[in-house]
Amino acid sequence: MVMAAVVVSRSPEADNATQSMVGQPLFPSFTDPLAASVLRITTYNESQSEVDKFEVAKDEQTGVWSLPSRNNYPADAAEQMQDAANSLVGVKVLDIQTENPEDHSKLGVIEPNAESLEAGDEGVGRLVVLKGQNNASLASIIIGKPVKGGAGKRYVRVPGQDPVYVVNLDDKSLSTKFEDWIEKDLLQLSSIDISEVAIQNYDAALEVGNQLSIEKHFDAKVSVEGASGWKMDSLTVYNDQGEPKSETLAEGETLAIAKLNALKNALDELKIIDVAAKPKGMSENLKADKDLVSDQQAVLSLAQRGFFPVTQGDILSANGEMTVTLTDGVQYVLRFGNVKGIDAADTQTEDGSTDPDGVDKPVAGANRYLLVTTRVDESKFPPPELASIPTTVEEMEAMEADAKKAAQPAPSADEAPAAPVVSEESIDETEPEMPADTESTPEADAGENNESESAGEPESPASGDVEPSEGTTEQSGVGSGSGSGNGQVRDEDASVADETAVAADETAVTADAATAEVDATTVETSAAVEESTTEPSAEPTAEEKQERLEAMQEKITKDNQRKLDERKNRIEAAKRRVRELNGRFADWYYVIAEETYRQLRLSKDELVQKGTGEVDAAAAGPSFNFEGLGQ
Fold first, then answer.
1. Is residue 228 part of a domain?
2. pLDDT in tens, 229-260
3. Euclidean distance between CA atoms 79 and 63, whole angstroms
4. Where are the beta strands (DSSP E) in 341-484?
5. pTM check: above 0.70
């Protein structure tokens, strides 16, 4: 009877209006996805009968995105918000499934309202609300169950209305997972910039009477060596009484390169899966001031998460800490706290329902609290070596002499000796030519007369004094003999001697030309030197030396200041980076996956491995088979 009354009471105009929605946009006035500045998603946890609210919003004044549902944690939401808004822009009604409110539960489109819901209610959907500037409503929809057999189709309903529509809806961007809306790279560092890692492996806990107990295991400092190598800088091991003992790697022990490389990569890719607000009174450098130590509520907040402020102003962690130093002098301090249990939001699927198998859990198991801060490592900026500035002319001249001496190259031990100079006299010791300026002798006069009588005949390369008689061979000047055989041999010897003499003459001419060229260069250089030394004077005056001294003082002063400025600029750049990072880290406890925590907190057995003679495949890289390639 009630159903009949409802049917009878419905006006034909209402039915026609509903039917006219088919093929039309569900939100006809919402056309610009960039107009959306607020997204609210409300879900219902049926197992715990709780309503969960997720919100991301943009500040209208600053344009900065944040998550009001997570204490206004900064959001990286510009693109994600646009995708979420696009999923609702232009959504068209494909069909009208029902107009009967009794079907809402079966189709999963009951509104998640904490005031109207009761424990055990089923069929509660996911309420998505988009708003624009000045809180203007752009779209509001309850997303229900998927349509069986309809790929990408969902049952949806507008809040406050009865009709249930069938639409095509891709709701992947309408996520309530915290990690989907934030900057996932927490540390914002690159693994190639890591230079040192210091590990403080200890356990801390509160005992009866709020007494803090600390059990130290070891301290280790390792540094990066090469592309993927590591070296142990120091290792201190504590015994059961807490007494430290310095150790080195024993014979057969090596650093676990694969574990350290995995640690370096985990730092590079460190992602957070949740956050919680830190108590007030904790400064950016994570020092516990007096107000914090005396604030029992703040101390309790820290202790519940595994962090314990001590009177010295530092904060100890339940599971030790790690210091990571970069090449630019920025130093990260990571403190590992207690386990954070999985809450209801971690087990929800994207449609807001609870996943009984935990498929959508960020990590299988518990997660860890993490505190992060940064500081400047002053040891990365040693003072530069500054040059001495001369104060007198004598000091300047001494410095110039030292510089000139240092600039002269030292003779090399294996340097080849200089080639000997070839003289005309050494060309043919067996047949020396007569000097041109020898005294006149009868033999020489006779030779001159013979030369004039020969009227241009070539001079004998032997003696040139006596013309050979008819029927005899020319003498070589070494000896004489008779017979045709000896004469032929002597003729060949003479021919060889002639060729040798000619070659020697050519060599001498070349040497003379080279010598002349060197002499010309020497003359030019000497002239230039003489000109430079004679004008204005060979010896600089006292005024000129003083000017030279002042110029050197100015140059050295500028060079020294440049070195100091470079160091100062590097330190200032590191300080600016530290301020920027600490501004991000100051207000938050972070939560990381247990798997990531296990990669970062190494035990001594994981850090130092026993040598087996086998190369770690993960550390050594790929291997290649060169068999059959030849030598």
1. yes
2. 899 999 999 999 889 999 999 888 999 999 99
3. 14
4. 367-376
5. no
